Amino acid sequence: MRNLTVICLFVFCSQLLLSQSEGEALRVSISIIDDSTKGEELSQLDYTVLQDEVATLDNGTHVAIKLGVPQNAVSIKNSIHLDYALLDTVELWKADTNGQLELIYQTGQAFPFDTRPYENSSFVFPLDGTSEEYYLRVFSTKPVVLPFKLLGKEALVKELTFKDFLFGIYGGAMMVMFLYNLVLTFITRDNSYGFYIIFLVCILTAQYALFGYTDRYMLANWPALNQKFTVLTGAVVGIATVIFVMNFLQLKQKARKFYIPLYGTILLDIVAIALLIFDLDVAAYHTANVASLYGVCIVIAAALKLSRNGFKPAKFLLIAWTILIVTVAIFAMTNLGVIPYKPYFLGAILFGSSIEVVLLSIALADRINALRKETEESQEKALEMAQENERIIREQNTILEEKVQSRTEELQGANDELKTTLENLKETQTQLIQSEKMASLGVLTAGVAHEINNPLNFIHGGSAAINAELENDEINRDELREYLRWINEGVEKAGQIVKSLNIYSRTNDDFTEECDLHEIIDGCLSILQYTAKDQVSLKKEFSSDLGVVKGNSGKLHQVVLNLIGNAIDSIEEDGVVKISTETKNDKAIIRIADTGAGIAKEDLEKILDPFFTTKAPGEGTGLGLSIVNSIVHEHGGTIDFESEIGKGTTVILSVPKL
Predict the structure, then answer these.
(1) HEC string of 571-583?
(2) Cβ(540)–Cβ(520) under 8 Å?
(3) What would the pLDDT profile of 297-356 be if each residue is shown by its tens digit?
(4) How far apart are CA 122 and CA 137, in angstroms?
(5) Which of 538, 461, 456 is nearest to 495 (CA)?
């Protein structure tokens, strides 16, 4: 509240002292002209004597002014003071003794600042004491306001100096508010203060532009920008105000129906800026005014609704904007001539903006305090809830621990039962695999006996031949060697069959053996040779780079024996079983293709299921391929089938290489 008191006191003093400035009236006559009127023609125009103290004209107007200086004031060091800053062009002409017009000064916002006789935001023209008639040609894209006074040197210095002094105080007070809120921004880390200080800077810049101080201190050498700067800052203030109000009133959360329409103000202000860029300054001025009026209506409506709902920041905003709107209205009516021109009326907008800035600062502080209080209350509630939750959790933990203990005991018992069941299943699986082996061996017994009998015949024949040869007086060594070859071949053949049977009948679960697939295939073929009989031709196409795989040799024997045996069984008359190998992507591939009856498509999906068989009842258990599939997966491999009725079946076995 101390800040508010100080600013109010400053503004009040400024208006009081400005209203007491001394000056003598001039005889003012005006004539509306167009931009083609030359300065030399000003004395030939028809002028209308101004009845009011101050002339006010629409923006975009070209006007000629005839000033009559009282005879008693010509010889004194007086100056013509035009106390209005927003004029683009001001030309001062004087009539000489022959009535000819001479251009003395050409200045305004469209010209560099150093074209002005005095370094001041308003226009001051010193009299040279030689003429009683002066002419001005004036143009502005802003409203044209012409408050003329004739001031002596002392009164002029007093008025200009004191005006600058009071505006300096106003700017200083606003900067204090800026720095104060900037510090609060860093302390509280609240975005609302950030939006507020941007709004504050924009307001201060717009006020200084409105009273011509940016001409003097910022844009002295930038006339092209300077004559547009008042409208530009007005549009920027509109955008900054909308953003600040949206955040300040929390419109998105509390009054969303006003939130979207308020973006219309930003859009209109952007249009005004665009019009300035395309040198449509008059249209830009009116667009910015429409944007301000539209935005004010929406903000007032939103603030009224929120204040009725008990939202305290809305009440502060409502008071601040009401004061600002009243002072802006006074300023506008003074410019338009609705109320008599008085310096303190023109300064009303300073008073309004000062009050607004302070009230909004207070409102922000109050909102932060309210938020802090809400935060503390919510933290207390959160703490209470946390403590209650902690108590509930402790109780729940106790109950859960009891339940977990009970459940753990149950699971332990179930786990023990599962272990026993798993062991039984493993034992049963081993027994099934061994039973399948034995069943296969039983089927192959006749063939194996026949295959062993062949090499035994070789051995027996060789032995008998040797005995006969030994009874002769002369021994033929070449014939003895041939007989020994028969015996060796028979022994090797019998040994290979016995070896394959030994490997096949193993029961160990070791998967670390280095298994030669070609050797396994050959061993299985030696056992199955008799089963194939004469009608089935067994062919081999072995790859030279197949290599070895890591696994269980006995189980791989069982896989190959089962697959080749099935292939032989599928051929009812003459046919071929072709066993080929290859290497692909670090995997050993075995293909077993037969020319048998083939498998129906609907059966192909079920052939790996346990107990499923396509053989006649009593000829198969249905476990062979199921066990084969299990063994292949144990070796990290895959097994696939391709079959067509009447054309045969191809089994593709893939196992990772070592």
Answers:
(1) CCCCEEEEEEEEE
(2) no
(3) 888 888 888 888 888 878 877 887 777 777 766 665 665 556 665 655 556 667 777 777
(4) 16
(5) 456
Split at pLDDT 50, 70, 90, the class of 479 is: low
Q: Is the pLDDT of residue 518 over 80?
A: yes
Q: b/e string for 549-571 if b means 16 or more Cβ within 10 A? A: bebbbbbbbbbbbbbbbbbbbbb
CA dihedral (469, 470, 476, 479) positive or negative? positive
Q: Residue 644 CA to chain centroid, in angstroms?
A: 57
What's the Rg (C-alpha) of the chain?
Answer: 56
Let me know: does 657 contact 547? Beta carbons within 8 Å: yes
Contact 490, 456 (CB under 8 A): yes
Strands 536-541, 575-584: pairing is parallel
Contact between residue 153 and residue 129 where contact means Cβ atoms under 8 Å apart: no
499-527: average pLDDT: 74
Instruction: Give dist(CA 53, CA 57) in Å, integer.
Output: 13
Give the single-character DSSP code of 40: G
pLDDT digit string (tens) for 270-292?
A: 999 999 999 898 999 889 888 88
Place of tokens 């510090």: 183
Q: Strand pairing of 89-95 and 536-541? A: unpaired
Burial class (CB in 10 A: 0-12, 13-18, 19+), 70: middle
What is the residue whose two structure tokens read 């004031």? 73
DSSP state of 147: -
Do residues 74 and 131 lie in contact, with contact meaning Cβ atoms separated by under 8 Å? yes
Closest CA to 131 of 184, 86, 78, 201: 78
Place of tokens 């697939």: 517
Report the alpha-carbon distance of residue 4 to residue 90 in Å, rounded.
38
Among the listed residues 324, 340, 173, 311, the one whose alpha carbon sits nearest the alpha carbon of residue 251: 311
Helix (H) or strand (E) holding 156: helix 153-188
DSSP state of 628: H
**The two structure tokens encoding residue 339:** 């109320």
CB–CB of 588/549 below 8 Å? Answer: yes
580: helix, strand or coil: strand
Instruction: Say how far apart CA 100 and CA 88 lie, in whole Å.
Output: 25
- Strand pairing report for 148-152 and 536-541: unpaired
Q: Which run of H or E residues covers position 538?
A: strand 536-541
Q: Are 291 and 235 in contact (CB under 8 A)?
A: yes
In the chain, what are the helix, strand and coil shares in percent, each to the nearest 5? 60, 15, 25
3-state secondary structure of 111: coil
Residue 174: half-sphere exposure toward Cβ, Cα within 13 Å: 28
4, pLDDT greater than 50: no
